Amino acid sequence: MAVNDDYLKMVEDQLSEFGEVTSKKMFGGVGFYHDGVMFGMIGNDTFRLKVDEVNQPDFEARGMEPFYAKNKKKGMPYWEVPADVLEDRDQLKLWAKKAYEAALRGKK
Fold first, then answer.
1. Dihedrals φ, ψ of 73, to 5°?
2. What's the maximum distance between 2 C-alpha atoms anywhere in the chain?
3. DSSP one-letter string for 53-103
4. Fewest Cβ atoms nearer than 10 Å: which of 34, 49, 50, 52?
């Protein structure tokens, strides 16, 4: 599965308020990193952020669900970002910060 370059560029632009973010193509998608820690991804042309028990209620309240890989029977800890959050750089900055914090907690 290839990632749409225009969509990738748009997500990178929207994340510009969060600080330095790098992206890396992997497994047919793209991973997003901040300070060397993966906090987001694009798969199937959908942007998702890392979720744990702290920020999961934000996603559930918006009706979002975890990403399911076709070869796995359970969801992965990356949930789709609501369209209105992705379109609002200030709001996305807050959601990205929480996702980065979730990723840091997951490393412990």
1. -95, -5
2. 35
3. TTTHHHHHHTT--EEE-TT-SSEEEEEEPPHHHHH-HHHHHHHHHHHHHHH
4. 52
- The H or E element spanning position 12 is helix 5-14
> CB–CB of 103/38 below 8 Å?
yes
Q: What are the structural domain ranges in the chain?
A: 5-106
Domain 5-106 has CATH 3.30.1460.30: yes
- pTM equals 0.90
Quick one: tokens of 18? 């969060």
